[in-house]
Design goal:
By secondary structure, the chain is mainly α. It has one domain. Helix content is 93%, strand content 0%. 0% of the residues are buried.
């Protein structure tokens, strides 16, 4: 159960970074 929560956390971080990178690329 703990592993699933950890995996979801990592997935959320990766998505946030990808979203930020996409916004940064769109702005410049």
């Amino acid at each position: 159960m703990k592993k699933a929560i950890f995996f979801m956390l990592i997935l959320g971080v990766v998505c946030a970074i990808a979203d930020a990178a996409g916004g940064f690329a769109k702005e410049s």
